[in-house]
Amino acid sequence: MFKYVRYTPMTDEFTTHTFNELNENCKIHRFDVPYVSVECSTDADFAALMASQNPIIEAIEITQAEFSDMVQHSIQVKRMYDIANEQYTKECAVITSKYTHDEISTWSVQVAEAEAVKAGTAISTPFLDALATDESITITAAADKILLLRDQNAVYTAGCLARKWSTLKALKAEVGL
């Protein structure tokens, strides 16, 4: 079970008073703001932990919503997003690693050309023309190939995105967010 606490760190001439751990019955998750999530087995363990705090820090239990609002811009939560984004970027690199940045920047044009060909719209199709010539296929077959690649890319990228969200959810769950 998770509980959430706001406190006010206080410094005197000898020490900084902060939220302290009492024993191993409760795990404290710290952030760079004066809020902690506390993972305890029982309410009694949490009550004992709260009772052991120095009154000078004014530790009070808060809701998960308040806690989430206060730590959402913390370094720790930012790191959770960084981890999930790095995973997503690495997985998506499987698709993009075979292509130059310049070629990737033409994908939307290639797709627009392919959609126009499939719709029977007469437009200039330099990318499809080059593909059809290079592979000795018809312009319609080139359009089909581009649209298939677009669809495969979408399915793969959506899977990567779902795994990113799952990773982020798991990271947040570890600290009660």
Mean pLDDT over the full residue set: 94
Question: What is the SS-derived class?
Answer: alpha+beta
Query: How far apart are the termini?
Result: 12 Å
Low-confidence stretches: none
Instruction: Give the strand order, joined by hyphens, for the main sheet.
Output: 4-5-1-6
Helix residue percentage: 55-70%
Q: Rough shape? A: rod-shaped
Number of strands: 6
Give a quick precis of the structure.
The protein contains seven helices and six strands, in the order βββββαβαααααα.
What do these coordinates show?
- By secondary structure, the chain is an alpha+beta fold.
- The chain has two domains: 2-71; 75-173.
- It is built from seven helices and six strands.
- It has helices spanning 43-51, 64-71, 75-96, 101-104, 107-119, 126-135, 139-173; strands at residues 2-6, 10-11, 16-17, 26-30, 35-40, 60-62.
- It has a four-stranded antiparallel beta sheet, sandwiched between helices.
- Strand 2 and strand 3 (16-17) form a beta hairpin.
- Helix 3 runs antiparallel to helix 7, helix 5 (107-119) packs across helix 7 and helix 6 packs across helix 7.
- The longest helix is centred in the last third of the chain and has 35 residues, at 139-173.
- It is rod-shaped and about 80 Å long.
- The mean pLDDT is 94.
